C-alpha cells in the first residue's frame, strides 16, 4: 500500500532511438534542429514544464547515448527535474522497456512521450497526469478527426485500393502523447504483449491486456513531426511562441 504522506512522483520516458527516415537522410529525427535547438531538447523541456514531472528518462540510439547525454546537459533543466539518458534497443517497444527499467521504485505515474512531438503544451501534460492520479490505469490525449477515414483492402503501392468501409468519424480520435500510465500496468503490458501483435503505441499494449484506456483532450500543437512539411509547421508555431510568449 502506498504511503499517503509521500509526494506523488511522476516520471517521463522519451524514446528517441529512431532514425526518422521519412524526414530524409542525415541526423536522427530527434536531433534535428527546430528553431536552432534540437527537437529532443524541446520535447524534454515540454515534459519538464510540468511541475509534477520530477524525472525524465531519455532513451537514446544504442550507439549514441554518450553523445545525447552530452547534448542534453548543454541545455540544463530546473533543479526540480532529474535527467537520465540510457541506450535504447532495436525497436520502439524495446526502447520504452529499457526506459522503464531505469525508473526508481517510487514512481507513481509514468508518461511515455514521442521525441517527435516537441511542442506539446504543459496543460496537456498536466491533464494526462491528473487523469492517472484520479485512478485511470492508462490515459491518452487525443483530438477529433477533421477528415473522413476510409477502411481499404490493401494493394501493392501505386495500385488503386478498394474501399471496404467508412468508420463513423464522430467515434474516432487521433491519439497524441504524452500517454500516461500506472507503472505496474504499463510494465505488465510490456512484459506480456509480444512485439508485432498490432499495437502501435503503449496504450495499445495496455488495451491488449484488457485494461481500460481513457481519452483526455489533446492539443493541435502536439502534432508529430514526421515529414518535411511538419517541420515547416513546427518552425512557424515555435516562431509565434517566441514572439508572443517569450518561449525559448
Describe this structure in words.
This protein has 248 residues and is of the alpha/beta class. It is built from 7 helices and 12 strands. Strand 2 and strand 3 form a beta hairpin. The longest helix has 17 residues. The model has no long low-confidence stretch (mean pLDDT 92). Catalyzes the formation of 4-diphosphocytidyl-2-C-methyl-D-erythritol from CTP and 2-C-methyl-D-erythritol 4-phosphate (MEP). It holds the Pfam family IspD.
Question: In a few lines, what is going on in this structure?
Answer:
This protein has helices at 39-48, 65-72, 92-101, 122-133, 183-192, 202-209, 228-244; strands at 10-15, 33-34, 37-38, 53-60, 82-87, 109-112, 138-144, 151-152, 163-165, 173-175, 179-181, 214-217. It is of the alpha/beta class and 248 residues long.
Which features characterize this protein?
248 residues, 7 helices, alpha/beta, 8-stranded mixed sheet
Q: Helix content range of the residues, please? A: 25-40%
Separation of the first and last Cα atoms: 41 Å
- How would you describe the shape? globular
According to DSSP, the number of beta strands is 12
Rg, Cα atoms, Å: 18 Å
Average pLDDT: 92
The low-confidence runs, each spanning 5 or more residues with pLDDT under 50, are none
Helix and strand succession?
EEEHEHEHEHEEEEEHHEH
For the biggest sheet, the summary is: 8 strands, mixed
Number of helices: 7
Amino acid at each position: 500500500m502506498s504511503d499517503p504522506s509521500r509526494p506523488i512522483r511522476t516520471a517521463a520516458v522519451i524514446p528517441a532511438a529512431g532514425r526518422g527516415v521519412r524526414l530524409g537522410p542525415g541526423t536522427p529525427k530527434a536531433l534535428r534542429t527546430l528553431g536552432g535547438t534540437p527537437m529532443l531538447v524541446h520535447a524534454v523541456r515540454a515534459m519538464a514544464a510540468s511541475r509534477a514531472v520530477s524525472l525524465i528518462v531519455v532513451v537514446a540510439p544504442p550507439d549514441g547515448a554518450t553523445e545525447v547525454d552530452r547534448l542534453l546537459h548543454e541545455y540544463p533543466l530546473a533543479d526540480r527535474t532529474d535527467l537520465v539518458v540510457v541506450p535504447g534497443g532495436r525497436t520502439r517497444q524495446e526502447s520504452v522497456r529499457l526506459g522503464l527499467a531505469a525508473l526508481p521504485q517510487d514512481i507513481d505515474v509514468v508518461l511515455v512521450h514521442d521525441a517527435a512531438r516537441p511542442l506539446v503544451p504543459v496543460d496537456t501534460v498536466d491533464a494526462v497526469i491528473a487523469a492517472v492520479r484520479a485512478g485511470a490505469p492508462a490515459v491518452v490525449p487525443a483530438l477529433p478527426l477533421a477528415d473522413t477515414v476510409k477502411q481499404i483492402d490493401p494493394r501493392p503501392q501505386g495500385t488503386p485500393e478498394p474501399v471496404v468501409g467508412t468508420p463513423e468519424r464522430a467515434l474516432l480520435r487521433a491519439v497524441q502523447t504524452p500517454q500516461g500510465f500506472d507503472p505496474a500496468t504499463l510494465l505488465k503490458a510490456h512484459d506480456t504483449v509480444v512485439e508485432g501483435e498490432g499495437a502501435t503505441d503503449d496504450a495499445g499494449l495496455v488495451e491488449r491486456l484488457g485494461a481500460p484506456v481513457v481519452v483526455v483532450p489533446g492539443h493541435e500543437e502536439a502534432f508529430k513531426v514526421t515529414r518535411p512539411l511538419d517541420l515547416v509547421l513546427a518552425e512557424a508555431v515555435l516562431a509565434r511562441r517566441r514572439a508572443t510568449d517569450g518561449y525559448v
